[in-house]
Amino acid sequence: MASLVNIIGNSHVEKSCKIQFITSFRQALKDKDSLKFHELILYEKYQQDPLTTHFISKLLSDFPPTLNAIELYENNGFLEGQVNRLKTIKRMLYGRASFPLLRLRILYQP
């Protein structure tokens, strides 16, 4: 895969810039390097490429939560999993069960 990316990058200069941006973006997210991420966003904000400028403008509209996701270890994955579990149980029991049965299903821990 990397050799294919290198071949495309070497043959098309404009695609090479996009590939470099994507690679740097992914690396900054993987390393949780908020400074590199911030510099990359500011640099790409003033480029003339319509695809990256649109992506950056959408990212900047919700920038503080994005930066928090990079900098902080905490997340709400556990809570989202419980909400998903609750919705699945409610969907299964819709129209067939009373509240006591729903309560037992939700409180049951296998």
Automatic annotation (TrEMBL):
Superkingdom classification of source? Bacteria
Put simply, this protein is called Transposase
